[in-house]
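Supplementary Note 3. Input sequence used for the single-chain structure prediction.
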Amino acid sequence: MSTRRRDFLRSSLSAATLVSIGGPTIPGFLARSARAASAEGTGDEGRILVVLQLLGGNDGLNTVVPHALDGYSRNRKRIRLASGQLHRIDDQVGLHPRMGKLAELLERDRLAIVQGVGYPNPDRSHFRSMEIWETARTDSGPEAIETGWIGRVLDAHPPKPGQDPPALHIGAGRSPLATKAKRVEVPSLERVDQFRLQLAGAAPEQRSARTAMSDVARVDRGDDPLLGFLRRSTLSAYESSRRLEEVAGTDGDSSYPNYGLAQRLKQVARLIKAGFGTRIYYTRQDGYDTHANQFDTHAALLNELADSLAAFHDDLAGAGLNDRVAVLVFSEFGRRLAENASGGTDHGAAAPVFVVGPVRHAGLIGEHPSLEPDDLDDGDPRFHTDFRRVYAAMLDHWLGLPSAPIVGEGFEPLPLLPPARG
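The predicted structure, written as discrete structure tokens, is reproduced below.
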């Protein structure tokens, strides 16, 4: 093997992954034409799942508010929400006053609210409960967190060479544990308009790598299978750069509010509308660990959540894509029934889960957990719906992928979304 070729292989094998989006490094295989993706979009393979994690433990009792239950008024004085302020769902339950945009989606039959979601023997540690939700495993030990639930989906259904990544994390920092896989790397994007193909830097060896990769991309070296593979990967990386820069160059939808979450969902919508074949997007909203002075802080968070989800839904609806996209919204746990002395709430257990999109049954799914003292789990509302049944619905019904190898046997999918065909 010649020195030039050996140097090229060494540099290009490392440089092939140097596609940077807002700082994090991702593989250089984001490539598929928008025309091809649009052609697929009408079938089950065109369905997209957006997972939104509320970090910190959202107070479900002041989100989906059981205003007519005596236990609510008995245990909450400073942070209690009056029934007349709520967006009514039924005679007992209403949405927080600042969630008007989400209430509008409910009126349009685009929102399902699963009540009392959790898991057996709840753990009130942020880190442990997040591990359980993100891995869909309640056992402990290093092997339990080797992969996340989405990561196992990706390992079971890996992308073919040249395909768009099957999952993307939208936000700063590393991809979450939920997307950790053994064989598939999930890219992390902060903003589409920060995309640039970084195959060369100031160092001479990096400039040499770009020159070599450009050369192999131009010349058909069909006599060498390895160089042929690298040629296809290089072309894919350049095509990825071109396509994402085209997306970044388009005028963004100005109807999104100026919230961090709204801007992240805007990036998701831009990629979906550009025809990327990614089927699972993951993003997060932080700030829900409301131990003190919860009233105003929580209201602002829920206002951001509701307005951002509504803007995202309406953006996709305007593009005729809203029936292809479902959004799953969850937090690692709820908060305790009783408020604390600091005007906040401490770590709890069961909480509601939202699903936005073409839901089968809009409104409340399941009964609200009892707030009677004898029915509480160490001061918390008891769960009655295992979160893995929600995940099973996202996989079996929405994406058309078997859930049992991912979440385990015995978790019947909830009837949340239209089942996939075949």
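The first strand starts at residue 19 and ends at 21. Confidence is low (pLDDT under 50) at residues 3-42, 197-202.
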